[in-house]
Design brief:
It is built from three helices and 31 strands. By secondary structure, it is mostly beta strands.
Length: about 550
Amino acid sequence: YSYEKAHTDNIWLKKTGESNANGGQPVAKREYTDGYRFTIQNHLTYDFTVAKDHRFNIMFGQEIFSGKSDKMTLQSKFFPKDFTAEQVLAMWNYGEPLPTYNDIGEPSRTSSFFGRLNYTLKDRYYLTFTAREDGTNVFAPGKQWGFFPAGALAWRLSEEPFMEATKSWLSNAKLRLSYGQVGNARVGSYWRQQYSFESSANRLYYIGEKVQSGLKPTNTLRNENLTWETKTSANIGLDLGFFNDKVNVVIDAYKDVTKDLILAVDIPTHSGYGTQYRNLGQTTNKGVELTANWYAVETKDFNLSLGFNISFNRNKLTKLGLNKVYYYAEMYESKEKAVILKEGLPLGTFFGYISEGVDPETGNIIYRDLNGNGFIDPEDRTTLGNAQPKFIYGMTNTFSYAGFDLSVFLQGSQGNKIFNASRIDMEGMTDFRNQSVRVLDRWKRPGMITNVPRVGNTENNHNSSRFVEDGSYLRLKTVTLSYNFPKKWLNKIHLSRLQAYVTGQNLFTLTKYKGYDPEVNAFGGDSVAQGVDYGTYPQSRAVIFGLNVEF
């Protein structure tokens, strides 16, 4: 059980902090946070053996979670002189009325019951069966519970008598099969209408001489039919070990089908709302994963190991609901959406015009007339690649010698595209804001050859292939060098362990991407609006020094 209660006061005076967003006028704000998290977990496990060769493991479990977080913000703007926070936040007669916002929500509750049966025969044959019954209050009654079974089989071929001749070089071989389901309910409680408690200049009402505030519905319309998103997975795998497991290889081929995909979709504005969460899609992922580890040297004083993994995945949206096309990732400047969701396309597919460069005579972007009607219109938009990589990979190298340990981790992605929407602002040249140095090469006179258009034409900033770039990269993600001081030294100062280390993160990146970081997404973990860089803060480069001490 954990409980959180916080209270924060902030005052921004003229020309400082948040006041700059209000023309330099003073702003005062008070925030209250109140919440809790409550979890109960129970597990019962029983192991037994029948006739020596038959081993059983049975487990039953139950989990309950409940959590809630409320946040209230009190704010006053444009007060006439510098007051204390208490004075400012108590004022109703100066500047604007005092807005209040309160995120009042139902507690989030989940409950799960699950069981697992493991059966092993002669250390060669393995059977696993699991079942889960999960419930959550984020869905309406009648839609809250989901049943998710799974099963797996494994056969250790290397223990079979007919494999005896291979033991000198093949130390392990196991074949695996699995099939099962899991559920996803990572969405707010959108089956009941959500409200926020608000008081502002246009949402006040009066009882006598006292001003009051009230509730207003959020922009998302409730959906009582919303239910679990379900992923069904099938997998076949092979585990191999060579030369007493000095070399290990794991190969997996899989197919995942996710149905009842939970998506936020736009709805007609005459409804009074902007979006609604619905179960309306089905996606398919299939691919192959390979992992290999080589323990090259293993001695008392010197160790060296190398690891490599690579994954090939192909994604496709195979089914949609009533509407067969949706659009996501709206651009602030153009109000155009950069991502299309359509049957037959991968998630994260970009959409817009095809740019054919800058017209040397006018300085404007030339867009391809795909429908051949003689002018550019919305029907000329098309798909422009997608954020799905052809493959991703990683490499890990570890080295130990005489108390020193060195670990190097590299990761990479190949074949994915990024919609660099930051360039719309940084190369748009349509308003007064800082621009990229690339605009120094802009078109300036008839006949000039350049790939940067002229100043002042917003038509040059439509979503187009001009902003779609190769997002492939190889990054030195983490390097750690540590030294463990010898035991004979530590005994003299009565320590059991003393380790000094330095870690470098994101030290360098090899990429053709023009933005700050190819490993970002302006829309967070959104499964649809992937691969969009829109003023997104890049991952930082860091060097960390540390000391681990154990007494």
